[in-house]
Amino acid sequence: MNNKCRFMFITAATVLFASAAGLSQQETYNLTGRYAEGARWLVDTAMKTELDFNITDIEGIPSTKNTISTYEERFYEDFSDVKDGDYRIKVNFLIAENTESARGMAEKTYADENLQNKQFTISLDNNRKTYTTEGGAVSGTAQSRLACVNEFTKLLPSAPVKMNESWNVKPEEISGLMLKGKNASFTKDSFVKCSLKEVALTNGVKQAKIAVNAKLSGSLDYTTDEDNNNTNGFKMDITLKGELIMDMDSTVPVSLSLNGDISIKGVENDPVKKELVGAITATGKISCTTKYTTRVTDEEEKK
């Protein structure tokens, strides 16, 4: 090939590459979550919070405490009556337990008796959710947690998006991802911003990677807990970064990870003596990782 031909070949290849890249940038992707009739999902969640507390009691005596809390869940979701956006999901909790440790104290693990080894049904009909269980009434704590099941869908755009396009999500709509059913109210400077960062093949599966950036500021209310430890009205600041990965072929989730910093400030009351315990401030780290297995194998059934 002479120099003139070589130059023309390189130039043509460059133009073709640029055209292909331009088309890729203009391509839109539908990221709407999809539920399928008869599908079974296995969901594993681990949420960890590590906090350094500074406590001042009613006599003005200060103290400090470091705590690590890890909440783990493992449950099946079985989908039925899926039609026009409505569905029925049977949710069977295999694991729902919290492990806590503090400096100088033994680690303690206890099950959430409202959820562990219990089965519930979530029904969505005309945008109205109802919760039922074979064992009788669904407790308020269980309902709060069930309302957060599949909340990853709130992070998805309502319309097809292009590469690097961003969209906003209301903080109220995704707080359950980190707060697991606790009530919270947010200030106007709170935000959740998502953007499509990559679409690529991973182990032969076309996946979309969605970046998540969030700031959740406001007040946190624990009085929805049935043990009612009267710590309502805590001031809260959480900053988060993370990633949601979606299977583009079936439009189902693969994983969601969120990590960041948390600070809280408020007062605590003794629910028995009904008196002030003291003022509390705490800062630390918070993380949540969820894995979705949407093609459940016999080996996973046995775990």
Descriptive report:
The chain has 303 residues and is mainly β. The protein contains 5 helices and 15 strands. 19% of the residues are buried. The strands form 2 sheets. Strands 2, 3, 4, 5, 6, 7, 9, 10, 11, 12, 13, 14 and 15 form a 13-stranded antiparallel sheet that branches. The protein has a two-stranded antiparallel sheet with strand order 1-8. The longest helix is centred in the N-terminal third of the chain and has 24 residues, at 3-26. A hairpin with a 2-residue loop joins β3 and β4 (86-102).
Helix and strand element order: HEEEEEEEHEEHHEEEEEEH
N-to-C terminal Cα separation, in Å? 62 Å
Work out the radius of gyration.
Answer: 24 Å
Number of DSSP strand runs: 15
What is the averaged pLDDT score? 83
Give the class from helix and strand content and strand pairing: mainly beta
Number of H- or I-type helical stretches: 5
Summarize the amount of helix as a percent range.
Answer: 10-25%
What portion of residues belong to β-strands? over 45%
Poorly predicted segments: 2-23, 224-231
What does the largest sheet look like? 13 strands, antiparallel
Given the C-alpha coordinates, what overall shape results?
Answer: globular
